[in-house]
Each structure stands twice: as structure tokens, then as C-alpha cells.
Amino acid sequence: MAGMGANVIEIEAKDLRSLKKILLEKSGVLSAAQLGVRLRVLVDKGITDPIGWLMSIVGNQGHAESVRPSLEDVFVTCTGGARDVVC
User: Fold this and answer.
1) How buried is residue 84: exposed, middle or buried, by Cβ count under 10 Å (0-12/13-18/19+)?
2) At 29, which CATH number?
3) Beta carbons of 10 and 55 less than 8 angstroms apart
4) Does residue 84 lie in a domain region?
5) By three-state DSSP, how is residue 78 classified?
6) For the chain, how many structural domains are there in total?
7) How far apart, in whole angstroms, are the C-alpha atoms of residue 66 and residue 53?
8) 85 is a domain residue
9) Is 16 helix (H, G, I), strand (E, B) or coil?
10) What digits encode the pLDDT tens for the residues 27-38?
11) What pLDDT shows up at residue 49?
């Protein structure tokens, strides 16, 4: 999990469907999936402040926090998910 090359951030915000679409267009986003009232986003480790970077996109209308990666997150980063990522 530590070597997967992504930070896992969960975002609570209005209109998660639209936000997901916007985030998937950003080169630093490896994957985004809505889980209930949150958006689980895998952000490339090359982005030094993933929460600040995401909040600059989300604006004042949301909240973001770093969370522990799941086995599914590792799978997504190793298989490419929404982007071509190689483990």
C-alpha cells in the first residue's frame, strides 16, 4: 500500500457527480469513485499537497481528508483505473 504511488483523499461536497467529471480531467487524478456522500480520489504522489490541490478545484463548498488506502485502491493504481498507471 505504501508503494502504490497515490494519496487517497475523500471529499464531501455538493454535486459529486459533476465534481467527479471535473477531477477525472485533471492529470494528477488517477481515479475518482463516489461512495455514498463522499468522493474517493486517488491523487498522484507527485502532487505534494493533494488536499490543498483538490480544494483549489472544489473551492469553499467542500471538505477533504486523507484516508488510508484500501486493497481496492491498490488494485486500481496497479491496473490503471481511470488512467494508465503501472506498478
Assistant:
1) exposed
2) 3.30.70.920
3) no
4) no
5) helix
6) 1
7) 12
8) no
9) helix
10) 999 889 998 999
11) 96
Q: Which domain holds residue 39?
A: 6-79
Residue 10 domain-assigned (yes or no): yes
Sheet with 29-35, side-by-side order of all strands = 29-35, 38-44, 6-13, 62-66
In this prediction the pTM is: 0.79
86 falls within a domain: no
Q: List the chain pLDDT tens, one digit each, 87 residues.
A: 556 778 899 999 989 999 999 999 999 998 899 989 999 999 998 999 999 999 999 888 889 998 887 777 667 676 665 443 434
Please state, as a whole number, how many other Cβ atoms lie within 10 Å of the Cβ of residue 51: 17
Q: Count CB-CB contacts under 10 A for residue 24.
A: 14
**How many CB atoms within 10 Å of residue 87?**
11
Which cell numbers hold the place of 46? Answer: 507527485
